[in-house]
Write a structure and sequence with these properties.
Strand order of the largest sheet: 1-2
Strand content: under 5%
Number of strands: 2
Radius of gyration: 28 Å
Shape: globular
Largest sheet: 2 strands, parallel
CATH topology of the domain at 185-378: MetI-like fold
Number of helices: 16
Structural class: mainly alpha
CATH class of the domain at 185-378: Mainly Alpha
Length: about 375
Amino acid sequence: MAKTDLSYVRSDMLAPQPAPMTSRNVSGWIRTNLLATPKDVVLTIVAIAVLVSILPGALNWLFVQASWLGSDRSVCATTVQGGVQPDGWHGACWAFVKDRFIQFLFGRYPLDERWRPILVAVMFIALLTPMLIPKVPRKTLNAVLLFIIFPIVAFFLLHGGFGLERVETALWGGLMVTLILSFVGIAVSFPLGTLLALGRRSQMPVIKTLSVTFIEVVRGVPLITVLFMANVMLPLFLPTGWTIDNFLRALVAVSLFSSAYMAEVIRGGLQAIPKGQAEGADSLGLSYWQKMRLIILPQAIKLVIPGIVNTFIGMFKDTSLVSIIGMFDFLNTIRLNFTDTTWITPVTPVTGLIFAGFIYWIFCFSMSRYSAFMERHLDTGHKR
């Protein structure tokens, strides 16, 4: 049999060629994303028309006609860069936000002691940043410092003790309260929700019944009801003379409420894992907790990262409901200043709410972007 001549067959693959210049420039992007089909053309024209009709007026109100400096309401009712509007008031009153910015951050926390929450914030950022970066080593030590040591140190710094002046939680407020509630809620709800999800899938009737009962009862009532019960009904079950701090009640209520929702998110991930994964772990002789810790839970959690972050975002925004028990978080601290006679104007509430919405958006969008980053980082099956 004659030897086959394969000299015409390439021994290496051609290198990938760059995309055509027409698809890489601005005009190419516009044609591909905005003008690809007749429907896209119509929607693009409608969107441009809406933006042209709304955006100039909004930007003019927010920035051009806005007042940026001042110490009272008079600066929001004078002629500034374009004259007074027909109702006697011009654009946004950012001078109000600037004047009360520190109060929006710390509430009524004593002025001379505000270095303490600032120090706590610096410590939190210093510990959280390496935890969020996958390539930074010593994650176990970092987790111990962030979730065990840091809360203890932060409590004594904020509340007092060991020579520091005592600051009652009734004086806490602003963004500080929102972040504390969110951090504690996330740190508690994730592990507790995981245990509840495992308990709901347990073969032991008592554990399964308790887990199902807790999850369904908590998910069946709104958070405001849980907070109200923690504030009004809980003291009725305590011995005479005993009391629990309002802020601690809010922490417990938010954490337990979020745990119930987190449990269902984690359970969805556990149900998505093929049965063969557990059978393979059993064949290796792994115990139940080894199987869950090393094989099942890592895969399940990776699958439900969007649901987990969605729960965290919802909890972050729901912290505004703590006003029902007399706590003033970021949003309610801003709203409290609307009635201040120094700054009371028709544009003050709108300006304050826009500022609050922007701050909430920054935190929620950051969590969303980090979620997308972790999905790409952990997507070992389909690398992009």
